[in-house]
Amino acid sequence: MTSPRDPFETIRSRIIPLPAENVDTDQVVPARFLKMTDRWGLSEALFADWRFTDDGDAKPDFVLNRREMQGRKILLAGDNFGAGSSREHAPWALVAWGIRVILSTSFADIFRTNSLKNGLLPIAVTPERHRQLFEMFAENPDVELTVDLESQKVYLPGDEDLDFEIDPFVKLMILAGTDELGYLLTKEPGISAWEAAHPPRIDTRIGA
Amino acid sequence: MSTTRPRTLVEKIWDDHVVSQDPESPAVLAVDLHLIHEVTSPQAFTGLRERGLTVRRPDLTIATADHSTPTHARNLPILDPMAAHQVRALADNCREFGIPLHGWGSADQGIVHVIGPELGLTQPGMTIVCGDSHTAPHGAFGALAFGIGTSEVEMVLATQALLQRTPRTYEVRVDGRLAPGVSAKDIILALIARIGIGGGTGHIFEYTGDAIRALTMEQRMTICNMSIEGGARAGLIAPDDTTFEYLHGRRHAPAGTAWDEAVARWRALPTDEGAVYDKDITIDAATLEPMVTYGTNPGMGIPVSGRVPTPDALEDGASRRALAHALEYMDLVPGQAIAGQKVDVVFIGSCTNSRISDLRVAAEVLRGQHVAEGTRVMVVPGSESVKRQAEREGLDEVFRAAGADWREAGCSMCIAMNGDQLAPGQYAISTSNRNFEGRQGKGGRTFLASPLTAAASALRGVITDPRTLPGIVPPAEVGGP
Ligand code: SF4
Fold first, then answer.
1. Per-residue pLDDT reduced to its tens digit, B249-294
2. pLDDT per residue over A113-126, tens digit each?
């Protein structure tokens, strides 16, 4: 199991195709799993309503249930992945299952932020590239990609590669396996100075 | 930070809260108010314990239990063991870290985004965060309010600050006057139908224009609430006299000379003449109709007088497949009139539409009438305080007499975590904010609409254009805070 503080190495993996568009976080982790108070063990919750029947049996057709998909780390998702509820359970469940990289044409803001905080790399590609990747998979379901965060490149078979953008700050965090709270704690003197200059307007403790 | 460049409302709040910013890094942004609830906080508290950290500012933090709490009578126990555990964990965490809690059974309990404004905690110019994506209603007061994930909840608990990139701004101007039967909910559903669920990605909306100025605070909150469904991180409305009137005298609002000073400060917040937004759109309020969604995301909305779109009419393959998939899930026929579609359940509630004015609108429709045979109608007030107010006005009696179920406060069927949910295949018309597959219960199908449209539909058991009911009072005239 990966923890956000594990450094991100180069990921080499075959891909899991999930062409559905506008997959929202309610699909990634249905709400009933939000009652869990720890973040581990969410692997079973991932796409639960698509993966399992009402009786809890695995649906053999669903892509994650296919034997050859086990152990793959790169999810090739349809357009606009991760809309909806801000639940961080979505990236937790993806990471718990083993996904480290998601390719799509776009990601919802909160989902992208939450993923990056948890060592899950969302990579946005152009619609042409996106189509090309699906075609590539259709031709060869065992096609392997290599994602290198350091050089910000996805290496495709042959000599092709594609560059991706990532916020330099986030990249630094993921590569170093540190996190934002660690960084914020070093900013304490500035926060104290700000507080001294901005007296609080409220006190939530009154009347509570 | 002083500057002579004209600035938007968002820029002013932003500048005022930036603590520091390293090159190529996000800004450290100070947080004025942190709202927490039972579902997205437990892992954050665990994180604090693991690192040996405390809560920096319990006086700027407030907790309530709303998401997984039952809406049955408070003297009955919470039956779901996981929900009971979460509610207990919240109480334990609040006690351990000294955070004030309006918990299960408290007179101030309610949906986190309903109680903040109600208690006067939500004030203009503030930065407000919560581990819930619908934190934007606080933006109705001219506060910069947005949803965060659990890692960020932990950061804010520990440091009362957050790392944020400078936001881009998006002006949503709504000019003109709403026609009778058309409400705030219809404005926001129409906007999202127009720009799509990704339209505002990377931006923060500022709603401007006469139609927005004419709204009450509760109506403004309905609009800001759903900013996230248009892809925006937050949505704000500049404070004005309507805002100040709402706030005056509330428990946490400033009083005496502090009030006058605060109002003077707040009056400087609205966007300066000449300030530029990164993007903009204008909507003519007069052309809007009551809206209803037909699909499985909030952007799939049409006027209630309209017809379900036809996938074949779409050029783009991806959109065609998405629409076909949505219609299959919803079991709707392309081209069918949406009015007249059967509904099994009517849900009036959620942080979008569960405030007193929403309940008054629904009660006016149901007064002296009875809901359709076989239609289950649930009315869930947004807070215990809204519930008491409604009962003082006798609205509970109106609902009960009409055959509706009058519940205790909570998120209820907005998120279907507490046992209030649809059965597979059931249709609901709902005043909440999300119609994703299974959002209101596995296999459940949701039509989003305003309280007026939902209540009208309750009477007939089918989606009903409220303008076709006799003697409907326009929402604008029902009144409310
Ligand atoms: S009512 Fe719905 S959207 Fe609002 S806080 Fe509760 S779950 Fe979130």
1. 999 999 999 999 999 999 999 999 999 999 999 999 999 999 999 9
2. 889 888 899 999 99
With a cut of 0.95, is the ipTM above it? no
Binary contact (B147, A110; C-beta < 8 A): yes
B76-to-A63, B35, B87, B421 alpha-carbon distances in Å: 43, 26, 14, 19
Predicted structure pTM score: 0.85
The C-alpha angle B93, B99, B102, rounded to 5 degrees, equals 95
Q: Compute, in angstroms, the gap from residue B117 CA to the centroid of ligand 1.
A: 15
Max Cα–Cα distance, chain A, nearest Å: 67
A151's CB contacts (< 8 A; 6+ apart) are none
Q: Which atom of ligand 1 is found nearest the CA of B415?
A: 7
Separate counts of helices (H) and strands (E) for chain B: 16, 19
Q: Closest Cα partner for B164 from B352, B29, B310?
A: B29
Tokens read off for A156: 């495709």
Q: Is residue B415 very low, low, confident or very high in pLDDT (cuts 50, 70, 90)?
A: confident
- Among the partner-chain residues B19, B80, B198, the one whose CB lies closest to the CB of A191 is B19
The Cα of B322 is separated from the nearest Cα of chain A by a number of Å equal to 7
Give the distance (Å) from ligand 1 centre to CA of residue A87. Answer: 12
Q: What is the DSSP string of B32-91?
A: SEEEE-TTTSHHHHHHHHHHT---S-GGGEEEE--SS---S-TTSPP-SHHHHHHHHHHH
With a cut of 90, say whether residue A157 has pLDDT above it.
no
